[in-house]
């Protein structure tokens, strides 16, 4: 469904991605793990067109989307939930969710999707009139994921969904990510430092080191891999 081939991305002179190959099949959850600065966020930002690739190709269902603008990539159904969440702090929860659906005009389905995200995250329903910026970190992450779901994405890109959250909230968010994948067949590409949870939730995973993919396998095999255990699972 999504195919990155030999992707090179630079920030000025910094060669952040040095020939990345990643494939995400329809309906899969894929996790990309790696240390700080490995290039995980850059991989997502290149996929969503925010930091364009200098070399290589990105295809969505066979169509070359490498040089599309970020808004056109969103229109193709790739929706990124950025690191640090970036919800609209002065808009209410309900208004934030409306913004997620701004490219759509199928009002009946928008209503259905709104009920669905309120079902997934009942706390958001309770807080629907509260300003986004006054939510807790975990609630803001839930809102950011829900806002992305309101665009009915084909692929959801999640950048560090666990960042800065308490372990219990992280677990809750990962279990809902799995639920979203199972119930809607939404394809999900997660970038995470919490390798343990990310690989548990994933069908397949990729390991990244200083701009290169160094390993790929099923989530279960990577969790059992001695090198992965030592480097990323603290075992
Ligand atoms: P983290 O888990 O810490 O967010 P990451 O794996 O997501 O790390 P990236 O943020 O993709 O890593 O960074 C990859 C490399 O690119 C790093 O060396 C980083 O310093 C560099 N980099 C990232 N953003 C920029 C930028 N805006 N300008 C210059 N260099 C950047």
From TrEMBL:
Classification via PANTHER family: HIGH-AFFINITY BRANCHED-CHAIN AMINO ACID TRANSPORT ATP-BINDING PROTEIN LIVF
Protein family according to the UniProt entry: Belongs to the ABC transporter superfamily.
PROSITE patterns, A to Z: ABC_TRANSPORTER_1, ABC_TRANSPORTER_2
Gene Ontology terms, MF aspect: ATP binding; ATP hydrolysis activity; branched-chain amino acid transmembrane transporter activity
Listed name of the protein: High-affinity branched-chain amino acid transport ATP-binding protein BraG
Annotated SMART domains: AAA
Pfam families named in the record: ABC_tran
Source organism of this protein record: Desulfotignum phosphitoxidans DSM 13687
Ranges for domain ABC transporter: 2-235
Keywords carried by this UniProt record: Amino-acid transport, ATP-binding, Nucleotide-binding, Transport
Top-level division of the source organism's lineage: Bacteria
Gene Ontology biological process terms in this record: L-amino acid transport
